[in-house]
Amino acid sequence: MGLKPEHVEKRGHFVNVNVRQIHGPWNLGYSLDKHTLSSIIAIAKQVAVQMGVPYIDNVLVKTAHTPQMKDIPAREDRVNALCSAFVVNDVLADGKHDVLVVDDLYDTGSSLEAATIMLRKYEKTQNIFVATLTRKNP
Q1: pTM of this structure
Q2: Judging by beta carbons within 10 Å of its beta carbon (0-12, 13-18, 19+), is residue 83 exposed, middle or buried?
Q3: What is residue 20's three-state secondary structure?
Q4: First CA to last CA across the chain, in angstroms?
Q5: Exposed/middle/buried for residue 18 (C-beta within 10 Å: 0-12, 13-18, 19+)
Q6: Residues 40-77: pLDDT tens digits?
Q7: 24: nearest Cα among 3, 43, 52
Q8: Is it the case that residue 36 has pLDDT exceeding 60?
Q9: Neighbours of 92 (CB within 10 A)
Q10: Domain residue spans of the chain
Q11: Does the domain at residues 25-135 carry the CATH identifier 3.40.1280.10?
């Protein structure tokens, strides 16, 4: 089922994004954003079960405290703060893996951008797919 394209702000510019159901070739799912840990984990696990792929939650881990993102005015500073707080653990089998990042809320996109930046540095990551459950009203 295709949804209507919507306009999404990216780095101060609006781009058209085609919203689609989450079907894809990924073979790995894990959760991000620990403030709703139990609900997002339950959903990510169920997505993995439905897709018949492993659920792994410790590939990308936030190991340091960051200020609330709403208190950091510049997007680049938010992304840098989050990148500094994330650690990629080498827990995947050898080879290249497609990764699905499941996040509970899309607001500014800073946490997802930081997650994808860090995952791109991981030599076992092939493609990164992102799914969010909700979106904050602009």
Answers
A1: 0.70
A2: middle
A3: strand
A4: 24
A5: exposed
A6: 788 888 888 888 888 998 899 999 989 988 899 999 99
A7: 52
A8: no
A9: 19
A10: 25-135
A11: no
